[in-house]
Amino acid sequence: MMRGESLPRAAAPFLGFARLLRRHAFAIAPEQVTSFMQAVTLLGPRSMNDIREAALATLAPPPDRRGEFEAHFRGYFYGDAKPSIEGEEDDETHIKDDRGTHQQESLTLRREKGGELSSALEQLSSRDFQRDADGLASFRRKLATALPPRRSFRTARTRSRGTLDLRRSLSEIVSADGDIPWPQLRRRQSVPRKLLLLIDISGSMKLHTADYLKLAHAAVQGADRAEVFTFGTRLTRITSALRLHDRDQALARAAALVDDWDGGTRLGPALLTFLSVPRFSAFARGAAVVILSDSLERGDHSDLETAMRRLSARAFRLSLATPLAGDPRFRPATAALRAILPLLDDLVDGSSVKSLTDFILSLARPAPAAETIWKRLS
Known about the structure:
single chain, Rossmann fold, 3 domains, six-stranded mixed β-sheet, about 45% helix
């Protein structure tokens, strides 16, 4: 983002409004501020309501703070007296980064590199997950046998429908003084494929993050080989934390590992970062990969398309679960979704734990490609 002094004078109020929201603990990413000013430019604007609609669409205040957002908008643009907002003092005490001077903000932004680093302008916060009755115990028990199988290089003895195990047969002949009742057979074992979950924890996914993390804990506990990563403006592997059997302890440790809760999102760069680390990209090879995200990629989506193409080539099955698909009116109409739809095996409803568990437990069953299904619905 440009420095305030290098912006046109007409843009300064919009940049100032974004800074006001950050001072009151709203999670506003740099690209959201840029999108806000671009939206205002596109709209004209013809009225203050256009500016308000642009702010709502691009700065995306959480539903539970919508009233506070409206109050700040009127106070900033209309000059209304500053409202008394319940809980405002508590919000202020939870901010861990005062973000320093404007010069420090600009320097931090220039040092950002995709999803690898997190700028001081991000909303860095902890998260507390409470235990509830969500029915994930059944999912955990069924998962190990429900994942798609693959043939292992390890073999096991069998009495039928196998190939000759020459080494064991010769050993049996020697031990039986040249006599063998029947030849020794072997066949390759089948083992469940790896499950890789990539979870979007940006501000637009705030309402679903807790459920997704509970689902991820159940997956790690139930599958022999499951890996979980979170991404927003950073990429964080939380598999080791989720291996703790107690869910409350596991999610508390995961919450401590992740610093970019409820901030911006860079889906394409985050996935490219994942693929650029050989140890991480190996997790995707031959795995069932499920991305939990609304996939609202702002600006150029070329990085997202590149990352999805590479993931599709590595994975056994590549799926995108978006909460937006819970709406019957949803269609993959954005430029980003249209670009990646041919690369997806599945584009499914990710709006609830029930829909996600049902889908993951069905991964072993063949299904039409995502593009085929959504073309029928269009």
